[in-house]
Amino acid sequence: METKGRVFKYGDNVDTDGIIPARYLNTSDAKELAAHCMEDVDTAFAGQVRPGDILVAGRNFGCGSSREHAPLAILTSGVGCVIAASFARIFYRNALNIALPILECPEAAESIADGDEVSVDFETGKITDHTTGRTFTAEAFPPFMRELIRAGGLAAYLRNKKR
């Protein structure tokens, strides 16, 4: 499993209200949420993000409320992976529950620049910045997590296991 795309880079403490502003929480339509993803942090994000692009951020990404809308908006916008120095724990759990690949790698989060072309190999944890030629290593997803992501999230994974 791998993703490759352009980086959208943000700083520390990007909270769930910055990811999907509360004024849009009256819908559970994932496409509508994606249309407003990162709107209060980066007004251009939703119009520029392409499938496979990578969101890179600093410390404590996804802090704030426990809303599941935040990782859903990111996933539905087409982001192939989020790399951060660290994640808020509830965001981390919510992201993996819906199959949004996320990796903690402080060195990559600090070094990768906005607009860089980056690839991520989820089996090895290797992050390659093709713009600079640098590589970084995050903890690879264990096999069951790769299965969970391939299945489309925890609910789909568990449904498949029952069969």
How does this structure look, described?
The chain is an alpha/beta fold and 163 residues long. The protein has one domain: Aconitase, domain 4 (Alpha-Beta Barrel), CATH 3.20.19. 34% of the residues lie in helices and 19% in strands. It has helices spanning 16-19, 30-35, 45-48, 69-76, 89-97, 106-111, 143-151, 154-162, and strands spanning 2-9, 54-57, 81-84, 102-104, 117-121, 126-129, 135-137. A 7-stranded mixed beta sheet has the order 4-3-2-1-5-6-7. The chain starts with a strand and ends with a helix.
Descriptive keywords:
163 residues; alpha/beta; Aconitase, domain 4; globular
Write the layout of secondary structure elements.
Layout: E1 2-9, H1 16-19, H2 30-35, H3 45-48, E2 54-57, H4 69-76, E3 81-84, H5 89-97, E4 102-104, H6 106-111, E5 117-121, E6 126-129, E7 135-137, H7 143-151, H8 154-162
Parallel strand pairs: 1-2, 2-3, 3-4
Antiparallel strand pairs: 1-5, 5-6, 6-7
Helix pairs in contact: 7-8
Strand order within the widest sheet?
4-3-2-1-5-6-7
- Overall 3D shape: globular
DSSP strand tally? 7
The count of domains is 1
Q: Note poorly predicted spans.
A: none
Topology-level CATH name: Aconitase, domain 4
Biggest β-sheet, characterized?
7 strands, mixed
CATH superfamily: Aconitase, domain 4
Query: For this structure, what is the CATH class?
Result: Alpha Beta
Second CATH tier, the architecture = Alpha-Beta Barrel
